[in-house]
Amino acid sequence: MEKKSILDLDRLSTEQYQQVDKLPFVVVLDNIRSLNNIGSVFRTSDAFLVEEIYLCGITATPPHPDIHKTALGAEDSVKWSYYADTVEAVDNLHALGYTVFSIEQVKDSVSLDTLQLDRTQKYAVVLGNEVKGVQQEVVDKCDKCIEIPQFGTKHSLNVSVTAGLVIWDFFKQLYL
């Protein structure tokens, strides 16, 4: 097998990307500390046509060299907005007709592997702080919570890994 060159990949320019139809899907980052995690979420969101990223609370915003280090320019292609308060961001999404999920371990959560999405609906997911997770007041505002099944000794995943799993699952259900 021969590896593809960058020219073989036939990627969109930033301008072309901004014109392409996106998934009806918003990613909300609730007080994410790591600039590398933020950049990684931008890059994954670019890869899977996420409509927008809401950066909330202490979550840093572009431009920033440490975000760029992992985003590799996706911070220029993916639309983003900043909210000082994540609850306000969730309220805004509800007003726009989105079903909002927290990615959090709670009683009665929906397992990601059994989640069924409706292609006619709009969705958002809230990803929480690397230590504390999604704020309880934000969880309380969400329609449901999604939990990623895990079978080892650890009970959590890095937020950028979680984002990758969740974004890919939503992409498969809403796009493929």
Can you tag this structure with a few keywords?
alpha/beta; globular; 7-stranded parallel sheet; 7 strands; 176 residues; 35% helix; single chain
Report on this model:
This protein has seven helices and seven strands. The chain has a seven-stranded parallel beta sheet, with helices on both faces. Strand 1, helix 2 and strand 2 (52-56) form a beta-alpha-beta unit. The protein has helices spanning 14-19, 35-47, 65-71, 74-77, 86-95, 136-141, 159-174; strands spanning 25-30, 52-56, 80-83, 98-103, 110-111, 122-127, 144-147. The model has no long low-confidence stretch (mean pLDDT 97). By secondary structure, the protein is an alpha/beta fold.
Task: Describe the secondary-structure layout.
Blueprint (H helix, E strand, L loop, with lengths): L13 H6 L5 E6 L4 H13 L4 E5 L8 H7 L2 H4 L2 E4 L2 H10 L2 E6 L6 E2 L10 E6 L8 H6 L2 E4 L11 H16 L2
Parallel strand pairs: 1-2, 1-6, 2-3, 4-6, 4-7, 5-7
Helix pairs in contact: 2-3, 2-7
CATH topology: Alpha/beta knot
Q: What's the helix-strand series? A: HEHEHHEHEEEHEH
User: At CATH's second level, what is the architecture?
Assistant: 3-Layer(aba) Sandwich
For the termini, the CA-CA separation is 26 Å
Level of helix content? 25-40%
